[in-house]
Every structure is written in C-alpha cells, then in structure tokens.
Specification:
Elements (H helix, E strand, L loop, with lengths): L5 H16 L33 H13 L6 H17 L1
Helix pairs in contact: 2-3
C-alpha cells in the first residue's frame, strides 16, 4: 500500500471521524476560479435601522448609486445620501 499525502490523511481522518460520530461526510467547498470572496460586514457595527421606501425613492437611490465612480451598493448610497443631507442642513 502506498503512503498517503498529508492532505489525503486529513481527508481520511475527517471521514473516519464523521463515520465514527455518525455525521454526514461533507466535502470541502472550493471557490470556483475567478469567483470573488463573500463580502464581510464592516468591523464597525452600527445600529440596524429598518426603513420602508416607495418604488420611486428606491429608483432614485439606485440611479444615484450607479452614477458614483465606482458604482456603490444601495446601503452605502443610503448612508452617503443621509450624510450629504445632514451636512446640507447645517449650512
């Protein structure tokens, strides 16, 4: 019998452990080539605010977000627009 490579031993060990514990054997997930990693949440957590917006407001926010260079996400666009609105009010 040929010796197994260290990675093979890991797979065998985890499979053996799974069988011993009666757990299903789940293969490791491999990210397809060229796929982007999942985005992480900001390290600075804030307070979650749920807001209901009308379709015309969403369209205006999305339009503004697409015009930014580079285009930004809807949540970022909302935060930025609030910031801009608050600064304009101070003037």
């Amino acid at each position: 019998m040929l010796p197994l490579a260290p990675t093979d031993w890991t797979a065998v060990r985890s499979e053996a452990q799974s069988r011993f514990l009666g757990l299903p054997i789940v293969p490791k997930r491999v990210r397809p080539a060229g796929a982007k990693p999942a985005r992480k949440r900001s390290s600075a957590t804030g307070t979650l605010v749920g807001v209901r917006l009308q379709d015309d407001e969403i369209k205006a926010i999305d339009s503004w977000a697409r015009k930014q260079e580079p285009p930004v996400t809807r949540p970022y666009a909302i935060r930025r627009l609030v910031e801009i609105g608050l600064k304009a009010k101070e003037k």
